[in-house]
Protein 1
Amino acid sequence: MKLPTLHSDTEPIPARQAPREVFVTTRWTVVLAAGRGGDSGGARAALEELCQSYWYPLYAYVRRRGCSSHDAEDLVQGFFARLIRLNSLSGTCREKGKFRAFLLAGVKNYLADEWDKGSAAKRDVRKTVFLDALAAEARYAMEPADHLTPERLFERQWALSLLERVVRRLRGEYESVGKGELFGGLQFALTGEKSTVPYGELSVRLSLSEGALRVAVHRLRQRYRQLLREEISHTLAAGEDVEEELADLRRVLS
């Protein structure tokens, strides 16, 4: 699947539809609140969802550090098993801002601890989140082999994982109201590219007038931008700048 780029659009989202304040209570904010001694009722679920969504960047990072595919799977599972225990949240209040920064720092510390132990038999490898190891390894085989450091690869895969999640959510919304074919026909618009099929032909294929087709493209892009900002916000602490993180992700993918 060709993933969308983090392009800007000349048509801004109306402020009432996507204000930054809408996403103050984010998943990462819930986790941080539990780490500061707040209500941890929803913290485990919030943390598990974040880990499930963004485990592949860690897998790629560990593989790029020289670990085998089997060891990388075990190490990522062991890290998550340690992280998701609620009694481990007490340390998260020391971390600020981005969940991805916390995650990378945490796995670096975990790897150092595991390598100090020197024994795979001592690892905590309970299956904390579902990892598709075969798909992960196939994906890793397509990574650039020589010019990305483990940290740069982590950042790049973080950005791509986030975009994939946004596209899945958007596709799901369209399919839930019986518009899966419309989404498939218009998905090209998320990359900022022109359709390979003339609009006149595409409108006939989708049973829309050309005017209605252009409106549908506009609405698809608008909803995509809204979901993108929402997904970004859920990996930030309350008060962190979504636009700043969006700009950083553009840099990573450039």
Protein 2
Amino acid sequence: MTDPTAIVLLSGGLDSVTTLAIARAAGRTCYALSFRYGQRHEHELVLARRLATTLGAARHLVVDIDLAQFGGSALTANIDVPKDRPIESMSGDIPITYVPARNTVFLSYALAFAEVTGAEEIYLGVNAVDYSGYPDCRPEFIDAFEKMANLATKAAVEGRHLSIQAPLLLLTKAEIITRGLELGVDYGSTSTCYDPDAAGAACGRCDACALRLRAFADLGLRDPAPYQGAAS
């Protein structure tokens, strides 16, 4: 018997890379799926390619779409990325780094890929504990998309149920890092920053950097990723 196949959304960031490692540890044959969607932090795709190979993905696709033509986000438009926000305030509102409908769009592509490849699972690294208030990282969204997926596809009509796996959903960022380290993830080769420099070094001041740095500090560890100046 062959291992079950899973589609894994892979950005090159801490969460998605840990998710790929978890899927591989669970015995899945993983097809990694990344997106060049007009994001300012496209350096993550360089890392995603490398990590897909390192973590044993059977295949890695990078899909080109253009969410930047809609704008509405600091990640895809000429809008400043918020910096130096208190961590306690991050989940109080929906920040300007939210990309409208991004996870819905990404999951829809993953769903199409799953139908073609025969995959019965889609893995994604959303997290509803240490996160920046994004509505498409909530358990209710994941449940709703799974229900939709099993109404909208030929595979489901013919009896092949598809499940959405979000193994990090209820973990703290520190717990995510601990799990990844247990699985041998090299976090020095991941990029979480919303506003890295041209060489890919993280700013150390955006919401994503703040959450990541606090998690490593909580574990008594130094973040091995490159940062601008002495942010790490």
